Each structure stands twice: as C-alpha cells, then as structure tokens.
C-alpha cells in the first residue's frame, strides 16, 4: 500500500496542509510541536480548545463512520491526514485516548445507547478519556488485574488501584478493566467498565517522573460507582474488549507517529550541524542508521494496518511496538550525541522559548522520556513473548509453579 500518488490523495493532502496552515496560527501558534510524548502536560487548556477547533473543521475522528460523527475516510486518506497533521507541527491530541481508543472500541463492541451517549462528546472535543488498565502488579501482564467490581442494584461498585494512567487529572471518564467474577483468574471474569472521574471514591495522584512533569497518575477506586449499563460488551467479556482496544491503538495513528519521529530526527540533525558534531563520522553513521530505521518503520506500519473482524491485533502489527520503542530510545541517545558537551548542561529551557521557564529543553526531554518507551504499553520483553506466542504459535513461556 502506498499513499499520495493519486489525484485524490494529492488533493486531500493539499486540503489538510491548507487548513493546518490557516488554523495553527494566532492563539494556536504556540502549540506547534508541543504536547507529544513526554510533553503531554503542556498547554492543556489550549490543546482542549484546539480539539474544538479541529472539530469545527471536521478534523476529529476522521476515520469513524459518518453515522457516528466521523468523516468515514478510507484508510489511505486517514493515514494521509495523520501524516500531514504531524508534519504541520500539530500538537499532541488532548482527545487522543477518546478518539483513538475508546471511540473505536464503542463502535465495535458498545451498545447503541453507549454510542449515542459518549461518541458525540469525543467528536466535538468536549469530553476526555483516560485508560484504566495497568496496576502495580498488572503492568505488561494485564491479565493479572486485581481491581474488583461488584454489582449492587443498578450500579457497579469498584475497589482497586490503577497506575500509569495518562491524563487522568484532566479526564472526564476512564475505561476500567476490573474483575467482576469472584475467584476468577487471569483473563477470565474481567469486565470493561466506563467510570466517571468525578465520582465519589475516585482519587487521582500524579506521578512525577524524570522529566520533572507528571502527566500520568495513580488512580484509586474506593467504593466508586458507575451505572450498571456502562459495561462494554457482556460482563466477563472484558478481556476480549480490552484486546480490541489495544488493536485500535496500533492502527492508522502509527503513520502519524512515524511522521512525528521524522520531525524529531530533523531537529537532531539540525543540532548536530549547529554544534559541529556533524563532522564526526561515527555520529553521521549513527544518524544514517536511524534514517533507514525510520523508513522501515513507515513500511512496516503500512503493511500491518488493520484489525481482524474480532477486533484482535493482526499478526503483522505485533512487531510495531517493539520496533518503534527501540528506535525512539536510540533517537533520544542520538539527540544527546548531537549536542556534544551541551548535553551535560542544565536541561531546562529559557523562559522566552517555552511555556514555563522551568520546562526541560526538547532534546533532553526526548532523551529522558524515551527511556520509558521500551516499558510502557508492554515492555520489550513482553512484546517478544506476544510475538512468539500469538503471532508465531510458539509454546508459552514457562511460569513458576503456584505455591
């Protein structure tokens, strides 16, 4: 599959570029290149306003079916939108989790009532979501979830803890994987619940990280309640729904991600030329290898797009997280090499070129944040297990005998 060769595709690229050029100006100009990985804390209110601006132009949820408020774009045009958005410096999407994860999940697995209730707020950029998957003892091993929920009358009552919950402090809702069948284990007996973040018994505690920011959090549920009909799919089918969500996570957005990496790579090259490090043949070889890997990332993304009818990740897509996480980590290291001695200086930006004078400068933010790329969303080790067991059909990794 290739993109951009037909007259239709050229015309659509021009449409996206023109709109971005006209609208990513004035009060939104400061958002260019901000709000991406490691920078999600930046300009929250402004990025929420940007979501509404995108919605006014019909640029949210572009791949959703028209009956659910989207444009119904075919995959090749959806990919072009995400690429051109990244190339224009479009900010990290405040509504990404709702648009990219929860929305497609509801379209695929949700009831008509759930779709009518929640999809319009995502399309309009007025309602924001976070993801309640990981726990202190259930990170990459999601099936080890211990958060519990019990049905009392017409409500679920939830007790437990989630961790690494990105943007929870700014979200209206959370989709929570909880154990709803007593004495169930592993992927059995889980349910996928939609929980209001302002409910009594929900507490959010930000986690400060090495970048100095705290865009993800611990979330505690202490008798928190949500309506009985806010379970996606049937009770006990949460594992299937959760895996569907993960499949949507690795869809068309991956090519927009690759375009954003290209922009970061260009900044690394510019720094190398500015500092004189470009004259180092070892660094030039390192950058050449990264350039090749970025091209490979694009073509791997193109050939692995899509999910099966059941919502499961296609086997070809299972390599993507492992590949880009390692690539992005190595880009962070190259960013430091490009700075040379400057890499050892204070990593904080100046007040005249950042939202906050105490913010970390972009190259250092890239380096520090990409340490986590090979951990979150399934560590590299877990990704290799997934590839071996689910894509290649190899025997499961031996597990310690229960005591």
TrEMBL record:
The keyword DNA-binding does not apply. Residues 130-222 form the Acyl-CoA oxidase/dehydrogenase middle domain. It comes from the Bacteria. Residues 236-391 form the Acyl-CoA dehydrogenase/oxidase C-terminal domain. Keywords: FAD, Flavoprotein, Oxidoreductase. It holds the Pfam family Acyl-CoA_dh_1. GO terms for molecular function: flavin adenine dinucleotide binding; oxidoreductase activity, acting on the CH-CH group of donors. Residues 7-125 form the Acyl-CoA dehydrogenase/oxidase N-terminal domain. GO terms for cellular component: plasma membrane. Its cofactor is FAD. PANTHER family: ACYL-COA DEHYDROGENASE, ACYL-COA DEHYDROGENASE FADE29. Belongs to the acyl-CoA dehydrogenase family. This is Putative Acyl-CoA dehydrogenase. The lineage of its organism: Bacteria, Bacillati, Actinomycetota, Acidimicrobiia, Acidimicrobiales.
């Amino acid at each position: 599959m290739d993109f951009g060769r037909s007259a239709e595709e050229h015309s659509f690229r021009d449409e996206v570029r023109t709109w971005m050029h006209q609208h990513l100006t004035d009060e939104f100009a400061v958002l260019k290149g901000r709000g991406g990985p490691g920078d999600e804390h930046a300009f929250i209110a402004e990025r929420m306003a940007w979501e509404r601006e995108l919605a006014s132009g019909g640029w949210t949820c572009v791949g959703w079916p028209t009956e659910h408020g989207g444009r119904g774009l075919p995959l090749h045009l959806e990919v072009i939108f995400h690429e051109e958005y990244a190339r224009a410096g479009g900010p990290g999407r405040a509504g990404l989790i709702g648009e990219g994860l929860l929305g497609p999940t509801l379209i695929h697995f949700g009831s008509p009532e759930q779709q009518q209730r929640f999809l319009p707020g995502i399309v309009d950029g007025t309602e924001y979501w976070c993801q309640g998957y990981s726990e202190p003892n259930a990170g990459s091993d999601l099936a080890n979830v211990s958060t519990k929920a019990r049905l009392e009358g017409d409500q679920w009552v939830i007790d437990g803890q989630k961790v690494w919950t990105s943007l929870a402090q700014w979200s209206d809702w959370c989709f929570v994987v909880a154990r709803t069948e007593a004495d169930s284990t592993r992927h059995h007996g889980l349910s996928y619940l939609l929980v209001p973040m302002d409910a009594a018994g929900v507490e959010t505690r930000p986690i400060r990280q090495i970048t100095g920011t705290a865009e993800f959090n611990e979330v505690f549920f202490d008798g928190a309640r949500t309506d009985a009909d806010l379970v996606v799919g049937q009770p006990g089918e949460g594992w299937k729904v959760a895996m569907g969500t993960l499949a949507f996570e690795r869809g068309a957005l991956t090519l927009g991600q690759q375009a954003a990496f290209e922009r970061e790579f260009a900044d690394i090259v510019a720094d190398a030329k500015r500092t004189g490090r470009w004259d180092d043949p070892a660094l030039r070889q390192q950058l050449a290898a990264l350039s090749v890997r970025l091209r490979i990332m694009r073509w791997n993304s193109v050939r692995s797009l899509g999910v099966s009818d059941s919502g499961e990740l296609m086997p070809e897509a299972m390599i993507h997280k492992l590949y880009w996480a390692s690539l992005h980590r190595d880009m962070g290291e190259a960013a430091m090499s490009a700075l040379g001695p400057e890499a050892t200086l204070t990593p904080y930006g100046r007040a005249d070129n950042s939202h906050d004078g105490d913010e970390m400068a972009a190259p250092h933010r890239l380096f520090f944040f990409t340490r986590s790329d090979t951990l979150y969303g399934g560590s590299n080790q877990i990704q290799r297990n997934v590839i071996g067991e689910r894509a290649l059909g190899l025997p499961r990794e031996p597990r310690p005998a229960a005591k």
